[in-house]
Amino acid sequence: MISKLGWRWAVLPAALGFVLAGQGASAQLSYSSGQTVSPAYEGWEKDAAGNEYFVFGYMNRNWEEEVDVAVGPENTFEPGGPDVGQPTRFYPRRNRFVFRVPVPKDFGEKEMVWTLTTRGSTEKAFASKKTDYFIDDVVKASETGALGAGSSSPEIRANKPPAVKLEGEKARSAKVGEPVSLTVLVTDDGIPKPRSQGGVGAGVRPSTQVRPGQSPAAPGVVTTPERGTVNRAYIPPTRVTVGKTVGLHLSWIVYRGTGKVRFDPAQVKAWEDTRTGANSPWAPLWVPPPVPPDGKYITTATFDRPGTYLLKAIADDGALLGMDDLTVTVTGSTAP
């Protein structure tokens, strides 16, 4: 679905595209670095007040490399650009519903275009208000993995995004190597209820087969008619959308800024890292960390070079996101 003409996503076609891609995996290669980034138009939405927004994300073809592209000719929007609030730091793999741009009044059937150039390759995402591109919270839940393609439930339809509030000033200063304390209050409606991935080992039962001298099977071991007793992580997905473990958690990311930022504790990945053992809701066997009793997440951020950084605190209940921003101006290193 990636092309020079950009991404145009609908729930079912997109999901089927990933299935077909998976079936041809033997003919594809994956890379930890050195690859390009494609902008993605996710669709358009409308809030309770009637305001309309184009929603965007991206696909970074690398598994490890984070790519920086400054706002300008290589990262621009038309009309209204070059800066409409898009990211300049692009995390690996698929990142969905990253930001939204208000639809200009009387925009009609025109298109808004996000142009992104990485490693000499220019790709575009074309946004318009075509009916097929309309999205709501159920579509978001489906696309991010909380639901299967085309499914819904009263629970998911009642879900509201987590509320995120950064305590303290929204603009701060720091020195290189100096930890900055970040406290975020997250409140949520408890929907959806925590659950493991429906896409990994769905439809199988925990193993009850124990050989002499062995202890009972671990929770990650399952028994299937086709494979016998195997580790759940090795069972191929049984759904056409990405699988995701549902459970409230918070992640800090660098949205803009060219330096490295070390967060402590290590943050849950906000991008779709599907590798077993990754600290990611899309990884098999991942378990969400405990929610603080008072709802306050305390983190420190340490910067390796001067500059202006825009950080985002992202609360994810498994289906919907809540966000808050912090701008940090970093100057020279601390005294020895």
The gist of it:
The chain is mostly beta strands and 336 residues long. The chain has helices at residues 11-23, 137-144, 154-158, and strands spanning 37-46, 52-60, 67-68, 75-78, 89-90, 93-102, 112-118, 121-127, 163-166, 171-176, 180-187, 205-206, 221-224, 228-231, 249-256, 261-264, 296-303, 307-316, 321-333. Strand 1 and strand 2 (52-60) form a beta hairpin.
Description:
The protein has 336 residues and is mainly beta. It is 8% helix and 36% strand. It has 3 helices and 19 strands. The chain has helices at 11-23, 137-144, 154-158; strands at 37-46, 52-60, 67-68, 75-78, 89-90, 93-102, 112-118, 121-127, 163-166, 171-176, 180-187, 205-206, 221-224, 228-231, 249-256, 261-264, 296-303, 307-316, 321-333. The strands form 6 sheets. A 4-stranded antiparallel beta sheet has the order 9-11-17-16, with no helix packed on it. It has a 4-stranded mixed beta sheet with strand order 10-19-18-15, with no helix packed on it. A 3-stranded antiparallel beta sheet has the order 1-2-6, covered by helices on one side. The chain is globular. Mean pLDDT is 84; it is low at 1-27 and 199-217.
Keywords, separated by commas or semicolons:
mainly beta; 3 helices; 336 residues
String of helices and strands: HEEEEEEEEHHEEEEEEEEEEE
Biggest sheet: strands side by side, in what order?
9-11-17-16
**Molecular shape:** globular
Report how far the terminal alpha carbons are from each other: 52 Å
Overall strand count: 19
Oligomer designation: single chain
Low-pLDDT segments: 1-27, 199-217
Question: How many H/I helices?
Answer: 3
Portion in strands: 35-45%
